[in-house]
């Protein structure tokens, strides 16, 4: 009888364990991995305005008992722009390797005299987000499979766009700055662009922006990503209310698949 009860107990633990594991989705990721490094240059007209570096750590981290990629995004103004507007921003996301969901998100913003530093912890089992070291409301209820601003981009990279129709919109729930919103990206078809490394086949994407006075229209941001398994952004154009910004890739290393230029 004791052996029978012990057996039932073991089976219950196993069943419970698998039930807990199954609460996480599983996303097939053939697009990125540890050690990916990409650098971008941002232009305002003919002037170099800023640079951005996107790094996936070569080491995996364990956060909330889950293996995670650590992704750093660093942006800063350069040259004459840094004299007028000094920006030193860092976003860091710990992205679950199996679910491609954030487990932790760190923000450090230094923009002229403005300062903000914050750590956000995601609990996908009970659909909450907790902002650490906050004196105000610090726990938020969020929808299933919610993202931060960095992990949402990496999740979009795992999407098979060959199965989408031109004009189709992908929606990803996201949490940023105490706000829950649906990030919407429209697939605009295929194209070929010229880069410093040569010409390359790309997919055209347009994030759908809510009405505002900062961007020029709801399709003010256009992104061209490599039409391959990597799906990394190669070029970005942003139409502002005053002028426009262009971002181009200037260096890449550690990609999961070689880029095919011609």
Give an account of the 3D structure.
The structure is a single chain. By secondary structure, the protein is mainly β. It has one domain (27-253): YmcC-like fold. Helix content is 14%, strand content 49%. The termini are far apart. InterPro entries: DUF3108.
Mean pLDDT: 88
Largest sheet: 15 strands, antiparallel
Helical stretch tally: 3
Counted up, domains total 1
Strands, total number:
15
Strand content: over 45%
Order of helices and strands: HEEEEHEEEEEHEEEEEE
Distance between the termini: 72 Å
CATH class: Mainly Beta
CATH architecture: Beta Barrel
Assign the structural class, choosing from mainly alpha, mainly beta, alpha/beta, alpha+beta, or little secondary structure: mainly beta
Helix percent reads 10-25%
Which fold does the CATH topology refer to? Answer: YmcC-like fold
* Shape assignment: globular
**Integer-rounded radius of gyration:** 21 Å
Q: Any low-confidence stretches, pLDDT <50, length ≥5?
A: 1-21
Protein name: DUF3108 domain-containing protein
InterPro entries: DUF3108
Pfam family, one: DUF3108
